[in-house]
Amino acid sequence: MIFSATLFAQAKTGIIDKTGIDLKLFNAHQDYLRGDFAEALKKYKDCNTAKPNDASILFHLGQCYLSLNDVDNAISNFEKSESVDPNGGDDLHLNLGQAYLQTDQVDKALKELQMYKQKYADDAKKIKESEVDYYIGQCNSATELKAHPVKVTITNLGVAINSEYDDKTPLLSDDGKTMIFTSRRPSMSTKTKKGSDDDGDVVQQSFDNIYFSDWDSATHKWGLSYMMQGDINEPYAWNAATGISADGMLLFMFRNNNTDAEGGDIFVAKKSHSGSWNNPQTLGHPVNTSYYEDGASPSPDGSCIYFMSEKPGGYGQADIYKSDKIGKGEWGDPVNLGPAVNTPYDDGAPCLGPDGKTLFFSSQGHNSMGGYDIFKSVMTDSGKWGKAVNLGYPINTVANDMSFTITVDAKTGYFASDRKGGQGGRDIYMVDLSQYPLLAADSANAKPTGLSVLRGKVTNSKGKGIEGAKVTVTDSTGTKIGNLQTDADGKYYITLKGNANYKVKAGAANYKTQTQAIHLPESMVGTYSMQQDFQLEKN
Fold first, then answer.
1. Angle 21-34/55-67 helices, nearest 10 degrees?
2. How many angstroms separate the Cα of 364 from the Cα of each of 64, 383, 396, 429?
3. Contact 402, 371 (CB under 8 A)
4. The dihedral sign for the CA sequence 126, 128, 131, 133
5. Which end of the chain is more exposed for a tag (fewer CB within 10 A), N or C?
6. Rounded distance, CA 520 to CA 515, Å?
7. Whole-angstrom Cα distance, residue 70 to residue 2?
8. 3-class DSSP state for residue 454?
9. Mean pLDDT, to the nearest integer, of 171-177?
10. Is the separation of the CB atoms in 421 and 156 below 8 Å?
11. pLDDT one-digit tens code per residue, 434-478
């Protein structure tokens, strides 16, 4: 306020320069501090026209462009500023290093960041607050991981799935024939809302909505994508699919609207017998809070969900939590997954692999190459999560790589990325994992392990499904490896190691328990699926 008053006093007394540059610079800086980067950019451009070789103005132009995600223009102005005066801005080397890293110019980024660290070597507080060591770590991770690429082939899914807008969070049905994903593309079949662009012009604002695509067995490609109809996509709301149950009957999603989910909550929708999706219902407390919750994904056996939350008490702004299912539509108190998974930075997009032990997630922490990287953590026999492992380059890049999911046979993965070369925004990519085993069971011998599906239905003597029946699976050593509950139709589903023997026990209140010994085969060309039904008799 004192600075502002001084400037206006100078203007009255004629001390300020005749072009009013100082006042424009002050107003531009205020716009920048308020987060109005587009307006600040306009004012700084006016100042730059009057003083084209001013290192400080060029630096501020670069900051505005960087905040608006126009990295190329940011670099151009930062480089001009540095050529005029290497100290044209206090954070010039830091910001230019960040911009270089985002454009995969890792060596240049590292040089700038080290210059910044050397400049403020005697200011421990500034070094800590700038997080320059964090960005240097990303440069080192990028150099190391790019020097040892993993054996994968990555394919952009093309215009059948991707658009010039954000396309993200791919989900697969258990048979791999249907993909559900989220897109921000405009659509004639959903409402949009008026907003303003960076120049202040009125535009139609598009919201996230949920789409699907079916696999074309004839062409071996994904077919054209369509927006889901019914109650899934609420008008004037952000709707995002985040997880699907193994039997394909439950769709977990994020919704942000101005009524029952202001700020963002987790919902679940159930598929009806006709195949349409019912109106999504909030999970409520204790999963949802007054803070931001998102990314809910169920375990293969449906006994729990993993999700992210920004509620306080975690290790960073966004942490990953687990909540156990304790009854029909009821969830237990969330448990933080701890420091092996969560970091001081954002962690989210969890997805438990079909082995029930390997958690895939996205993080800005650990040894990220830049932005979000995809990691995995394997649950130990004691139930603790192991050290997070970066999935490596080229799955991860200096861009934001997120929302990884893997097929039941563990041979194919899908994820979203805003890396260069896509259709625009974030795109969905497919990764061939046939030479890069990722599941916990695979890691010891670096060889794919056959996984198979055991499914079935528990009914009464009249053939009607028994909801909430307990199905227990034990292996040949007598170790319990599955503790399931049937859904409303009496169905159960679990992914198990193939070519193995199991005992399956089914029981329900007021019914006699049945036990069946089975041999679950495996398939060399896909995922073997076995049906084991139980018809229980009354006590």
1. 30
2. 23, 25, 12, 20
3. no
4. positive
5. N
6. 15
7. 34
8. strand
9. 84
10. yes
11. 999 888 654 444 444 456 888 899 999 999 999 989 999 999 999
